[in-house]
Structure formats: structure tokens, C-alpha cells
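Reviewers of the previous submission asked for a worked example of the structure-prediction workflow described in the proposal, so we include one complete record here. The input consisted solely of the amino acid sequence. No template or homolog information was supplied to the procedure at any stage.
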Amino acid sequence: MSQPLIDDLDHQLIEILSKDARISNRKIAADLGVTEGTVRGRIKRLQQEGMIAFTAITSFGLANRSRMAFIGVQADIDQVKNVAAEIAELPMVNAVMVTMGRFNILTFCLFTELDKLHEVASDQILAIKGVHHVETSIAVKTVKYNSRTVKITKD
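From that input alone, the workflow returned the following C-alpha cells.
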């Protein structure tokens, strides 16, 4: 499958929608100097190609698990994909990234009780075949968190 073509107008449209997804197509069209039909068609195409999606993003204040932690995982190189996939299945894990550096997998979790975080890191992740070290860091103060920074990918 070829990479979808995204032109300057698409980028401008995505930028506007990323700031306010509830803005009207008419307002977007006026701001970009195109017709409302063009905006509607572009949005539909971008959604169909999996380049954009619309969703409600909740704040930490609405979450039952309001503390943030990162779990760095060192796994055998030949097991990284499998380990990352297995970690991604854990309900308390919100994000899993394969990384370069000290850890080859980094996970992001929200929690309320330290014993639940300990259970995930020590009992669940460390027990996965191929994992040989985990290190947990708990956020004590969030200076900046942009919940709108999300990468949308197709399966």
C-alpha cells in the first residue's frame, strides 16, 4: 500500500482541526480560501485514509488513575517486538514505545495506588520472557503535558 499524499492544504486543515475539531467546515473554508465542499471532501478522505480521527480527550482530573509513571524495560534484542506486544496487552499500561538508549522499551502508566504500579512493573512486566530489567520513574510534578500529541496509525 502506498503512502497517502498529503499536500499543504491538508497540513493546514489538520493544523486547524488539531486546535479545535469542532470548528465548522464553513469557517475552515473561509480561513483557507477554499469551498466548504473542498474542506468536507478533504476531511472525509483524511479520515478514510486513517490520517485523522476525532475523539474526546479526557484530562487527568477525570481519570480514576491520576498519577503518572514511566517504566523503562530492558529486553533481549531478539524479543523486543514480542515483549512490547505483550506489555501493550496489560490493562494498566497506556502507551508502549520501542526506543533506543538505556531502555529498548518505554511504557507509560496512570495509577492511583503504588502497589498496583509495583504489581505491573515487578510481577507482570518483569515476568515476561525476554525481559531482564525494569526501572520505574514516577512523575512528581508535571510541568507540561500535551494530551493532543497523538500519533494515529493504521492497523
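The two ends are 12 Å apart (CA to CA). We consider this example representative of the routine output the project will generate in years two and three.
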